[in-house]
Specification:
Strand content: 5-15%
Largest sheet: 3 strands, antiparallel
Order of helices and strands: HHEHHEEHHEHHEEHHHHHEEH
Number of helices: 14
Distance between the termini: 54 Å
Structural class: alpha+beta
Radius of gyration: 25 Å
Amino acid sequence: MTHDELQEQRRAKWHTNGEPIRTFEDARAFIESVGFALMYPLHPPVPVPTFIGAYVGSEEGLPTWQKSFADPRAKEATELMIRLLRDRSAYEANLFGEDNFLVSASAFPYFYALVGDRNPKTMPKPGTRSEFSTLARDVFNAIQKHGPMSKQQLHDRLGGALSDVALDRALNDLWSRLRITRVDYRPDEGAFWDVLLRWSPEPVKQGIEFSVPQALSALVSKYVEAMIAVDAKEVEEFFAQFVARAKVRDAINALLAAREFAITHVGNRSMLTEASRVKEERPALPRNKPIARRPRLGVRPK
């Protein structure tokens, strides 16, 4: 495979080849096909599909999240993304700062197994070893008791001299451990947050049952499938956002040993790809023609 052929196959899978996704069904099929995607491209770029790229149908001239407010295409793509969240066909995570990271419904239980809490029903007790601040605990308890809430509703509920910065930090701390998730967005009120266990109990329960090696192997396999072919170091860098590199290398080696992955050459680089893809692309060997036997010496042919 050449580098141009790899890019062509990625554009086809990521819908940046002039065939945009515009309907809800297309959007759901896209996120299930790739497993996870950024909402907007990052600089420096991260090797992963983008939802805005699939919506536009191109990878050229795409807005970043910093400039998305001035791009009408971003508004339309966001509305489609929110429909996926409401339908539980996709979930969000905050791995890349302000840029939305979307995870498909089928991949989310494995993602939860790596990132989420194993005991999501109760908050850790306050203390020096607690990972959540007092404000984060108050925010979680308020949402758990009163249902989905916006930032303004949390301000009103918690009262006091609560700053936006402190509230945003508390929400991000809870979101980063998948205690809460954004479930809706309204232009006049902003995002609404709910307890993830209440919003999607089954994926959370499934994620708790998966071991870390199981979950990581499933996600690494999905990532390699979405990338068509990818350097092993790029796989490590991508998953290093939320798991140790050593565990990623162990998952890659296990999948190679199980012959789920194979090594393919893209130009002069050796890359990981699905073993089934190598079998499909390998041309069938021609059958050997039968060799005519020579008559034995000293025997006159009839």
